[in-house]
Design brief:
Blueprint: H1 2-17, E1 34-37, E2 42-44, E3 53-59, H2 64-79, E4 83-89, H3 95-109, E5 117-119, H4 124-128, E6 136-140, E7 146-151, H5 155-169
Parallel strand pairs: 3-4, 4-5
Antiparallel strand pairs: 1-2, 1-5, 3-6, 6-7
Helix pairs in contact: 2-3
Amino acid sequence: MKRLCMYLLILSAMLFLSRPALPVTDGTPAPRILLYNTEGLPLNTNSFKNKHNLIVSFFLVPCPPCEKEIPRLQRLQGRFGNLKIILVADFRTSSSKAKDFLKMISDKSGTTITLPVLLDKFGDATDAYEVKRHPTTFLINRSGVVVLRIDGYNEDKTELLEEKAELLEKNQEP
């Protein structure tokens, strides 16, 4: 009987621990990720918590929808002082490919792209944020909670992102 109880206890614990985490969507805590920029320097998204609102945008090379979104994000960065924006390159993207892609976007759009690029070398961030499409963009408030998730590029949703970022900048939760 003791052995059966112990077996059931272990089985219950395994089932509980193997449950998937809450999906990363509006109202859920943003996963903390440690990534490296194109020069190899580390950046932890948790370092923004309690200091800045944050946009994290996952992109892929090549990605025509990303080519539309990235210049808009660059212009958004210039509008708000307390908003930080980082671009996360897919794990199949090298540092040089990411730089070349952003230069091509700069040339094509007429907007100089200076946003920091982080490399998701092993796909850990993509997995943690459950990214299935590119671009996938998250607006995260100072408390580290996802305010908005956008899968793919959509003009209307990008305008919503800008509106919610503005509300956060004014210290009003959207």
